[in-house]
Specification:
The protein has helices spanning about 120-125, 145-155; strands spanning about 15-20, 35, 40-45, 50-60, 65-75, 80-90, 95-105, 110-120, 130-135. The chain is mostly beta strands and about 160 residues long. The longest helix is centred in the last third of the chain and has 11 residues, at about 145-155.
């Protein structure tokens, strides 16, 4: 059974390891430069040497957004499906923008991907923080894809 989507930050997403980055900690929040925000670094499986690293930059003046992510699986025998979600939220914790990706990480492998997008400038004007989370998707490669689609539809993304 799926829970109804509320598009209220972390409330829609279950079992993630979350880190919150204050929007004010991102140099781009105060300038027109493409500033770099503090990085996300988290294990997706707490008992193994398996890591998600995310760095992101944005420019509120032109809406440019770049999210770079790396999955590093140092385990010799364990491969996993991994979910990664990032949310721009306002002061009340409501979603303004959502990013979600499922990965399949092979043992002893590193994967990298960069997303380049242009977001509505109103997102940057209203955002107070970015919440990033990851988890091992034990139910498979499409876990939380339906949640992603529902949140996107709810916020009009």
């Amino acid at each position: 059974m799926t829970t109804p989507v509320v598009a209220d930050g972390r409330a829609d997403w279950q079992d993630y390891a979350w880190q919150t980055i204050a929007y004010s900690d991102c140099p781009a929040a105060a300038t027109d430069a493409l500033g770099l925000c503090p990085a996300y670094h988290q294990k997706w499986d707490w008992k193994r040497n398996q890591w998600v690293d995310i760095a992101f930059r944005f420019n509120p003046a032109n809406g440019k957004f770049i999210l770079s992510q790396t999955l590093t699986n140092n385990d010799r025998a364990d491969d996993d499906d991994v979910c990664v979600t990032a949310l721009f939220v306002d002061a009340k914790g409501h979603d303004l923008y959502v990013y979600h990706q499922n990965w399949h990480s092979l043992a002893r492998d590193a994967m990298r991907q960069t997303l380049r997008a242009t977001l509505r400038r109103s997102i940057f004007a209203t955002a107070t923080k970015v919440i990033i989370g990851s988890k091992q998707c034990r139910r498979g490669a499409q876990q939380d894809d339906d949640k992603f689609a529902a949140v996107k539809a709810t916020i009009g993304q």
